[in-house]
Amino acid sequence: MARVLYSLLLRLALPAQVLRHLWRGWRSPQHRGSLRAHLALGLPARTDRPLWLHAASVGEVQGLSPLVRELRRALPGLPLLITVGTATGLARARQHFAASSDHAVTAAPLTLMAAPWDLPGAARRFIASQRPCAAVFIETELWPNLLREAAVADVALLLASARVSAASTRRYRRWASGLMRDTVRRFSRIGAQSMADRERFMLLGAEPGAVECWGNLKFDFVPPSGVAEQGRAMRARLAPDRSMWVAGSTHAGEEVACLQAQSLLRETAAAHGMAAPLLVIAPRRPERFEEVARLVVDSGASLQRHSTLAPGREGDVLLVDELGALLPYYAAADVAFVGGSLVPVGGHNLLEPAALARPVLAGPHTGNAPDVARLLEGAGGLARVRDAGELAATLLELLGNPAQARRAGEAAAAVVAANGGATTRALEAITAVLRARQEQQAPGGPTARSASG
What we know:
Elements: H1 2-27, H2 35-38, E1 51-55, H3 58-74, E2 80-84, H4 87-102, E3 110-114, H5 120-130, E4 134-138, H6 144-152, E5 156-162, H7 166-175, H8 177-184, E6 189-192, H9 195-204, E7 211-213, H10 227-238, E8 244-250, H11 254-271, E9 278-283, H12 289-298, E10 303-305, E11 317-319, H13 326-332, E12 335-338, H14 351-355, E13 360-362, H15 370-379, E14 382-384, H16 388-399, H17 402-418, H18 422-441, H19 446-452
Parallel strand pairs: 1-2, 1-4, 2-3, 4-5, 5-6, 6-7, 8-9, 8-12, 9-11, 10-11, 12-13, 13-14
């Protein structure tokens, strides 16, 4: 009954959701062309039984990266289907995985598409057309209809890098306890990020024997080959004789705070006869690039753009107006602030700058990865800031003391190195599930004997 009510509410909201999607497509090209995929209309039928990997957005795509790499290495003949819930995440996946798959000439196909919405009809059409052999969902992707249709079609389901906050657990148990119990029990194996996450999944109704602690896939992030060299070259070109800091994955409200902090840094530098640091801002959403450019100009700062960088030209602020271009800037920077944390979004990927041995700054809102933030902060690799004033003060301390900044960056990198291994555990679980399915379907196996009997 709960799922029927849930599905009814989704159907009632569908016209508004479609209009919102079309509106965003009118404003930003990357949102165009995916509506039919979200509704699972006109999908070509597959017969190769791919392994389906599902991620919500950019952060989860980054988490998938090491798992996809190991799957291609260990099971090169296994077709992979990757679905992503947001347009920004799908664009990042296409940029990253399509490029990597171009070199895997002998590997099976890797397909990327927008994820189906959690409507009963869309879920049914998607599963019927793609016919995955198994599915791995990442982090908190708990979609009742998609998981039900997959289970009905006998698709083996796993949840990797699984997390659920205490607040979400309370909300689910209060308003949708039966629905969430049925949903989490669809997974044959759940690999939680932490023991606290494991306990919360069991509170939601998961079978204790199905929930293990695998860790966080994002800890296995390995910077792409050459990114450190790119960073050094970028630094020599953009800020050879001054400091540089990056504000990555920022949201509305955070750019203003960063520009205020930059203004304070500029005033301090002028008072001491020094060159002002370079601020690099990378907004989370591409449709906000022009809005942020106006904020920079209105603040009185001189603006450069990543897309139109000119040799020898200097400015106070550089706007990264291209998706997927952030990592080399992290590698070039002295300090990295990670957005979504000064405003109540939950914070974005703290591990990218940490893996590059950069000291990390974040606001108070890091609920998307509380254990990551706790470990980095405890090791001295992450500092908390609450507003523009604290951001400026912490930057002054770190930029004015390179040895301290270097120690903080090394501490952050050590946390990343010490907490890896989730990818290996997820790969072992996937391999075991696929092997069990092959044995069931082999002549004389349990499935074959049941059919002949």
